[in-house]
Design goal:
The protein is of the alpha+beta class. It folds into 2 domains: 14-65; 70-160, 2-Layer Sandwich (Tetrahydropterin Synthase, Chain A). 53% of the residues lie in helices and 18% in strands. Strands 1, 2, 3 and 4 form a 4-stranded antiparallel sheet that branches. The longest helix is centred in the N-terminal third of the chain and has 47 residues, at 16-62. It is elongated, with a radius of gyration of 31 Å. Belongs to the FliL family. Its main location: membrane.
Length: 161
């Protein structure tokens, strides 16, 4: 009985041609799968884009006025925190109104934000989670104060000293 060790020959390695053929076959399967999935998703994307384009172009052609969200940049807010009182906060925010912007309402919200920030402690707004809670609180207060006219609140700057 002879074994490969006895004959001195090493086991055969797969040839380069077989390796290339396997890689090409797998590439063809991957390309075909991508084409198939893309074909399934493309009609859904087109269906979602067409109404938006028709609304945008149709409104311009007919001359109809659409309610476009308006962004109002509030004046910079600088105030001290509740605790520790030697820490100051400076932020600039913008309000996104769902309908036409109301400057008087924006100024009321500006004053409300200042009053709220004076009740906040540094520990409450520390870290990413604290910042997220602050943003949610300010957005909720703005929406309540405006009776739902403010859709969101955007931070432009946020500094604590």
């Amino acid at each position: 009985m002879t074994t490969p060790e006895d004959t001195g020959s090493a086991p055969k390695k797969p040839s380069a041609i077989i390796t290339i053929a396997v890689v090409l076959a797998l590439s063809a399967v991957a390309a075909g799968g991508g084409w198939f999935v893309g074909g399934m998703l493309a009609p859904q994307v087109e269906a979602a884009v067409q109404p938006a384009e028709a609304e945008a172009h149709g409104g311009e052609a007919e001359g109809e006025a659409h309610a476009v969200p308006k962004v109002v940049a509030l004046d910079a807010i600088t105030t001290n925190l509740a605790y520790p009182s030697e820490n100051w906060i400076r932020l600039e925010v913008s309000l996104v109104f769902a309908e036409m912007a109301d400057e008087a309402m924006a100024q009321t919200i500006h004053q409300d934000i200042i009053a709220y920030l004076r009740t906040v402690s540094l520990q409450q707004i520390e870290g990413a989670r604290g910042f997220q809670h602050l943003k949610e609180d300010l957005t909720e207060r703005a929406a309540l104060r405006s009776q739902g006219k403010v859709a969101s609140l955007m931070f432009r700057t946020f500094v604590i000293e």
